[in-house]
Amino acid sequence: MDSAARWTARLEIIAPLTLFACGLWVFAFTPTETEQGFVQKIMYIHVPSVIVTYLAFFVTFAFGIAYLWKRLLVFDRIAKVSAEIGLIFCAMVLLSGAIWGRPTWGTYWVWDARLTTTLLLFLIFLGYFLLRLSVQDREKEARFSSVLGIIGFLDIPIVHKSVEWWRTLHQPSTLFKVQEGAAKPAMPPELLYPLLACMFAMLLFYGYLLLLRWQMEENQDQLHEALAQEVS
Question: Per residue of the chain (232 residues), what is the pLDDT tens digit?
Fold first, then answer.
């Protein structure tokens, strides 16, 4: 068993257990927020999903550049599977945000700057996979999708800064705020610590999915190469 397979096997156990432990902590032991009530607990899904979305699309961005530079398919495989995971987590961000918005804003959706730019991010990477499905040549698929993945990632700084650049209903940074020139926690420790733990658990889960899907993608490419050699 190679190192990637060993880590996948370990994370297959560790990641779900960590998620379960965080869920137990949040729903059984974390205090209910005074203003929003129980619905505020969706923050422990929403914010970690945002972090994983940012990371996943950054990996796609970085390995897209690496592929265009070195033209090695291993880089494209990593970019592809990370974009796939990022798209799922981006959908979770939109869905959990809509559920959170209903009791706080009175509606599931508004054309708020943060929501609109996040929806745009989702649509760009949905197009990323439509592009991959429409191109038959593996090298062209990797090259074209690398360019789109790089362009798509450039929306993330806009998403992140949108609450500062435009008038918006969306709240500012959930984790930290700047006071007197220094970054300080934006919430009390009894809410902050479980949120950080949930972020860590989600990142572990992302690592597990990335390794699992990368190995599947590698096996698929090897199978296609073997079939092409037999046909030729």
Answer: 578 788 889 999 999 999 999 999 999 889 887 778 888 899 999 999 999 999 999 999 999 999 999 999 999 999 999 999 999 999 999 999 999 888 888 888 888 888 999 999 999 999 999 999 999 888 999 999 999 999 999 999 999 888 777 776 666 666 666 555 565 666 788 888 999 999 999 999 999 999 999 998 888 877 767 776 776 6
User: Nearest to residue 202, comparing CAs of 107, 95, 92, 69?
Assistant: 92
> Alpha-carbon distance 29 to 32, whole Å?
9
User: For helices 138-153 and 155-165, what crossing angle results, to 10°?
Assistant: 20
Pair 86, 52: CB distance under 8 Å = yes
Run of H or E residues at 78: helix 73-105
C-alpha distances (whole Å) from 112 to each of 143, 171, 176, 179 are 34, 11, 22, 26
Estimate to the nearest angstrom the gap between the alpha carbon of 47 and the chain centroid: 10
With tokens 């572990």, the residue in question is: 204
Domain 3-32+40-231 has CATH 1.20.120: yes
Secondary structure class of 227 (helix, strand, coil):
helix
